[in-house]
Amino acid sequence: MSMKELMLERLKKIENLEQRQLLKDMISGVFTNLIDYQQQMNDRLEQRLLDELKPDEQQFAIYGTVIAKEQYDPIHEYLFPIIPTDPERKVISMEEIKLAFLHQQPAVVCTVFLQCDSLQIQQLLSENRQFHGKLHTTAGDIDIQVYLRKQQIYSKEIEELYNTFQVNGIPWKTINHPYIHKFLDVHLTFQPLPQDEIEIIDMTIDLEEYEPYKKMNMLPLWNIERHKVKNAGFPVPAIDKVNFEHMLSIRKLGAEHSYLVVGDEATIRYVKRSENAITVVCPQDKAGIWQLIKVANVQQDKIGTLAYELFSNRPLDCFMQRLSASHPVAIHTAGELVRLIHSFNLAERLAFIDFEIIENEAVSSYSYALNPFLTEIISKPHHKKTMVLQFKAFKQDFIANDLLSFVVSEVQRHFYEYNCIGVWQ
């Protein structure tokens, strides 16, 4: 209860109306303004404390959603395709199929988005089923058999992004993009094809009981855009007199956004950020063209209407979160576990109930690993104990397990001495 509410509550208990009115006038004239002033000073002090802690993780937050290709806005300010060429409608050619068969490689005829639970997708992939379909060609329809495999291209993009974060010295946080794990490649089984020069116009496939979940021509988006930038001037020797500083202007791209320089540890020593430029320190002594990754600073009120909910890995902006990000210390306690889980804005989706440490026993998990490329932590999984994280779902929809996997994968990054799995209670 605030001080104002407390005083009004006490005023109501004064039975003498004249005294109540007199005291009310005094409070309204003096104490109310004093309380407002004190509250303003407290807010300013709190903001000053927060401004002292400005972790990079707030600036490099990754957002993601999915839309139908026909709804994609190519001039959107914040959301871009994960693969820049995805918006182009591509139909595989008969020559490409024959060439894949000749080299005994998989012939991917299209990609589908399954709007269903992750466990259903795992079950479907484990069955190695084949489905019927048709190739609609200029010479008529051709019956085909297809099978499904998990789409890997988006996962590889995230792994490359992780490597870029490491080169730029930015702490990594698990990407919360629940939709990219529901894209499946449709592979054509080997079969004799017409030798005549015919063109494929379109294709259809029947996924039987999974047909209601099938979505064609879907496009995953995130707030990352790639640019090529030339040196702003000539390289100058760095302070170590071994490397050179390359200045890249970001004024035209938008100084309010965050940027990463694409490269590896052999070509980039470190990266510095100023108000309107990026400075790359590296052994290269000649000017050139650099690849930049722009992480757009998303303004939620300017996103517009989306058919699928927008998610991000940005933690809640509070003092404790900024303090822990600015002073990263491994604190493996139950309290730190709870703080980490509650640091994300998923309270309307799930609630943490409890956790349990058990021996390596077979436990049915509803979560899956989102950071399989984190191999720098040397450990033997079969020697670890299992941390079972129990959650309650407030909204059990087709991405519930994917959001659970995001939270569990973040816990796994911090509590790497355990095998972390998530379950619903």
Keywords:
alpha+beta, single chain, 6-stranded antiparallel β-sheet
How is this fold's topology laid out?
Layout: H1 3-12, H2 17-52, H3 56-59, E1 63-68, E2 80-81, H4 94-102, E3 107-114, H5 118-127, E4 130-137, E5 140-150, H6 153-167, E6 183-188, E7 200-206, E8 214-216, E9 218-222, E10 224-230, E11 236-237, E12 244-249, E13 258-261, E14 270-273, E15 277-282, E16 289-295, E17 311-312, H7 319-326, H8 334-341, E18 350-358, E19 385-393, H9 400-414, E20 418-424
Parallel strand pairs: 19-20
Antiparallel strand pairs: 1-9, 1-17, 2-9, 3-6, 3-8, 4-5, 4-7, 5-6, 10-16, 11-12, 12-15, 13-16, 14-15, 18-19
Helix pairs in contact: 1-2
Low-confidence stretches: none
The computed structural class is alpha+beta
Radius of gyration in whole Å, from Cα? Answer: 28 Å
Describe the sheet with the most strands. Answer: 6 strands, antiparallel
**What fraction of residues sit in β-strands?**
25-35%
Distance between the termini: 35 Å
Number of helices in the DSSP assignment:
9
Q: Which descriptor suits the 3D outline? A: globular
Strands in their spatial order, largest beta sheet: 7-4-5-6-3-8
The structural domain count equals: 4
- Percentage of residues in helical conformation: 25-40%
